[in-house]
Amino acid sequence: MRQLVIFERVCLIGHIVSMVFGLVGILLVIPNAELIFEEVLNLSEVGQTAMQWSMAGGGVAYMILGAVGVFLYAVRNLGLARSLYFLIPSLSISLTSELLGTSTGFPFGHYSYLSGLGYKIAGLVPFTIPLSWFYVGIVSYLLGRTGFDVDRKPTLLRHLGAIALGALLLTSWDFVLDPAMSQTSLPFWYWHQPGSFFGMPYQNFAGWFGTGSLFMTVSALLWRNNPINLERSQLNVALIVYLANFGFATVMSLAAGFPIPIILGLFLGVAPAILLWSKAPSKSISAGLESGNQSVMSNVNNVNVVLK
């Protein structure tokens, strides 16, 4: 288990470091590539080629590291079965939505992916895209589910609230990410018919919310007989991953001159995420029950002593 935790931490730290390097590359290195490669670094042709390869693979690396790290975090806190019950629906449903979107325009609108995000499945969707749906999706849902206290008070309304808030956190991340990744001088995808929200159609956000809600609902149904009891400290990784990815998108949007999506994302994503995390119990439910049982047994023993 210790080795698993170490590998998880390495992947998550690598995920965040890769995002930092990605920001430096996209915002500083690529716009000034000729000056940096030839005059500042004085790289040889081989060195320049290696640098270009590392820049090209940066987007792939940070998403793979994020997916692996978050999956290991989920296995450690939820167990393998529940982790797979989220991984498989999130990958399959998000990939289906992305393939439909890039080929028919439903549910996000008409768009196409460019290069820089890895091998494209069916020549349409980079394989890394469903991975990002998974790892941002599961941390969003865990924050929503724990914040709504679903497992201690499993009412239908709380389940629906957790799914809705989880999908909202996921969509709020896209509020900030999408304009920066599609409307700048170095886009990773483009819209065939630019919409009203900084080049994006409003349909895109409905598609995000709907896709996220769908795979979160499937996962919730698969988890129905296996409640999870997470305490606040166990959600630290979930919150950090969410905030780190939001921060990456924020810097990209600021550099592109898009402050309004950031403000929306802060109100609809970051603020609720922190609030939900703060509402999580400081002790797990099972630990609390165990402590309560021990207290009851102690009182019973004291009574027995008095009676004797």
Could you explain the architecture of this structure?
- With 308 residues, the protein is mainly alpha-helical.
- The chain has a domain at 79-281.
- Helices cover 74% and strands 3% of the residues.
- It has helices at residues 2-29, 33-40, 45-78, 80-104, 128-147, 156-182, 203-222, 236-256, 259-279, 285-307, and strands at residues 111-113, 120-121, 125-126, 189-191.
- The strands form two sheets. Strands 1-4 form a two-stranded antiparallel sheet. A two-stranded antiparallel sheet has the order 2-3.
- Helix 5 (128-147) packs antiparallel against helix 6 (156-182), helix 6 runs parallel beside helix 8 and helix 8 runs antiparallel to helix 9 (259-279).
- 37% of the residues are buried.
State the main characteristics.
mainly alpha; two-stranded antiparallel sheet; 10 helices; single chain; 308 residues; 4 strands; membrane
Tell me the major beta sheet.
Answer: 2 strands, antiparallel
Shape: globular
Judged by helices, strands and strand pairing, the structural class is: mainly alpha
Mean pLDDT figure: 86
Quaternary state reads single chain
Computed over alpha carbons, the radius of gyration is 22 Å
Q: Point out poorly predicted stretches.
A: 285-300, 302-308
Number of contiguous helices: 10
Question: What would a concise description of this structure say?
Answer:
This is Carotenoid biosynthesis protein. By secondary structure, this protein is mainly α. Helix content is 74%, strand content 3%.
